[in-house]
Amino acid sequence: MKALRHGDHRRLPASLVLAGGVLLLALSFVIGSARGAYAISPLQLWNVLLDMLGGSTQPTPEHLVFMNIRLPRLLLGVAAGAALGLSGALMQGLFRNPLADPGLIGVSSGAALAAGMTIVLGSLWFPEMPRTLGSWTLVAAAFTGSLLVTMLVYALSQQDGATRVGLMLLAGVAINALAGAGLGYLTFLATDEQLRNIQFWLLGSLGGARWSAVALVFAMVTAAAGSGIALARPLNAIALGEAQAALLGVPVERVKRLAVLLTALAVGAVTATTGIIGFIGLVAPHCVRLVAGPDHRIVLPGSALLGAALVLAADSVARTMVKPAELPLGVLTAFVGVPFFLLLLRHFKSRL
Amino acid sequence: MNARNMHDFSLIAGLLEVVGVGVEVPGRALLRAASAQFAAGQVTAVLGPNGAGKSTLMSVLTGQRQPTGGDVFLAGKALAAYAPIDLARVRASVAQETQVAFEFTVREVVELGRYPHRSRPGKSGADIPLQAMQATAVEHLQHRALNTLSGGEKARVHLARALAQVWEPAVGPASAQATRWLLLDEPTAALDLQHQHRMLQLVRAWATAQGVGVVAVLHDLNLALRYSDRCVVLQGGEVVGSGATAEVLTPACIEKVWGVVAHPVAPQGGAAGPSQYLFEAPI
Fold it and tell me: Are B84 and A246 a contacting pair at CB < 8 A?
């Protein structure tokens, strides 16, 4: 009803958009459950669910595949997509710039540099590290790297006790370039095998999903999403500019700090476990804004839902297109996300 | 300088004042020892040539800029001592230019004015944003994206947003300083002739009927003469005149500050009204 009155600015009502997001996520979750190197038919999936509820003693192969490989992978995908979509919306709202994405504040490039250093130099400088940390080595290093670089960008954007987002934007661009150069130097030093490892890490994958890592990432992303959605109204006010938002009683400095912190933690944790998954953080908020308008009370949860759905869809394709091998996820997110985005753009271009 | 002793300033509760305020940026003073009083229930015009420090004075009044010297008092208490949220409930401002990010509609922008009141919504469910939009004649645009409007329409939307912010007297623990304030930086700059008058008539009515303190930067001295009770004239960062507008804005003052010769024009048909000027083009 209300949407119809919007005339040339027709928008879908919030409840419809969010319900659509949930539906899209559920759909990609079910499809993602069934497809893969080991296909599980809907009937088998149903039996696995019944087994889980009934506590069967004789697990079927489907059961083992689903519980140990597919489910953690799907949940990691949900966490990754939600973190990227939500953080993208937070960053675009904070920077008041539709081109912002979580990578802008150095989260991804910091993780990439640290991962590269671990792959190339780790065995050289700290030969005992993989023994003590095991498979967590790369994850811990990448997470630390992403936090350190984000903190550096944040510190560089301080002026007179306040955070200047214009400065943060430029510092982010500069530090990202520096991290890129560092990574470039590492690829020059790397052996062929290390080079391949770096390359695959940079293209992202949900293949490393283990229950322990998934639980940790999922918990962090859930916490970040909970606090992030509370920033919706302040971010709406910040659309009028920081000065006007402050005059409306928005604690602007606190909002900025929280948005950066949440992005660093959520995207840092995700990137450390999956490698770099591009494009979701940029595209998901735009898609939601195009159909539902710019109100962050819809854009934040909507971007999280859509981001999760897009990552699951992309991962389904990544797992099945060249099975039993896997395509890199980062390639697929662009392949899935860009046409989706362009389609929306075509449909709603009058609105831009 | 002892304006505080004048009868219309007897109530310190309705007083916003700057005392000896200086604002310096490296290598330049934007304001020098500026003192001025702004009273509830009155329209005070801030006047002066380009670069005189009008916007700087406004940013000191909004608290966006910390003066490098002097004090700002609201109801006798230092402005910086108030909680921002308490101030937001009684004081709204419209900047010279407000760039709104993303495609927010007119209605959404005006609703943002209610942000400081979200924890205590208005009584009887009155649709304050709608009333505010009606007051500035933008309700027919309410579903349009703000960024598709003309400059003048945008200015009226932002005034509606400010009106919505201070639509009702504040209630609750912060009501000690219950006077509401509207701080407007060049509100008429983008408006057509009719809307310039309508906007100033509107804020003037708010001042007289509701006791709101209005401070407005104006460039049109005739509008200032017609609609403001008092004025503060700035030149080169210094206050060079303040008081009742008709008394301050003499031809001598105008020639000294603006370098323009002003000829008083008699009101049409001898009707009562404020004096107006005809200006000679400067040579």
Answer: yes
What residue type is assigned to position B1 of the chain?
A: M
Query: Checking DSSP bridges between strand B15-25 and strand B181-184, what pairing results, if any?
Result: unpaired
Q: Residue A132 has what pLDDT? A: 60
The pTM (predicted TM-score) of the whole model is 0.90
3-state SS, one letter per residue, for A93-141:
HHHCCCCCCHHHHCHHHHHHHHHHHHHHCHHHHCCCHHHHHCCHHHHHH
Cα end-to-end span (Å), chain A: 23
Average pLDDT over residues A122-126: 71
Phi/psi at B263 (5° precision):
-110, 125
Angle of the A252-274 helix axis to the A136-156 helix axis, nearest 10: 150
Q: Which of residues 58-77 of B touch A (CB under 8 A)?
A: 62-64
Distance CA A205, CA A327 (A): 9
| Beta-carbon separation of B102 and A239 below 8 A | yes
| Best mutation target, B94, B115, B119, B166, to test chain A (most A CBs within 10 A) | B115
Residue-wise pLDDT tens digits, A154-182: 999 998 888 898 899 999 999 999 999 99
So what's the pLDDT on residue A134? Answer: 63
What are A's interface residues with B at a Cβ cutoff of 8 A? 5-9, 93, 96-98, 233, 236-237, 239-241, 243-244, 246-251, 289, 293-295, 351
CB-based burial of residue B168 (10 Å sphere; 0-12 exposed, 13-18 middle, 19+ buried)? middle
Distance from CA of B233 to the nearest CA of A (A): 25
Indicate the SS3 state at residue B76: coil
Domain region containing A79? 57-351
Question: Which residue in A285, A262, A140, A291 sits closest to A213, CA to CA?
Answer: A140
| A91 inside domain | yes
User: Tens digits of per-residue pLDDT, B182-240?
Assistant: 999 999 999 999 999 999 999 999 999 999 999 999 999 999 999 999 999 999 999 99
The answer to whether position A23 is within a domain reads no
Distances in Å between the Cα of B260 and the Cα atoms of B186, B222, B226, B251, B279 are 20, 14, 19, 9, 7
A108 within some domain: yes
Q: What is the CATH number of the domain that holds A237?
A: 1.10.3470.10
Residue A182 inside a domain? The answer is yes
Here the tokens at position A322 are 């060249």
Instruction: State how far residue A333 is from chain B, nearest Cα, in angstroms.
Output: 25
**Domains identified in chain A, total number:** 1
Decide: A309 and A81 in contact? Cβ < 8 Å.
yes
CA atoms within 13 A on the CB side of B248: 24
Sign of the Cα torsion A337, A340, A344, A349 reads: positive
Q: Which residues of B touch A250 (CB under 8 A)?
A: 115
Q: Give me the half-sphere count of Cα atoms (radius 13 Å) on the Cβ side of residue A72.
A: 20
Q: What is the pLDDT of residue A5?
A: 42
At B125 the pLDDT is 53
Measure A157 CA to nearest chain B CA, in Å: 19
Q: Does the pLDDT value for residue B5 go beyond 60?
A: no
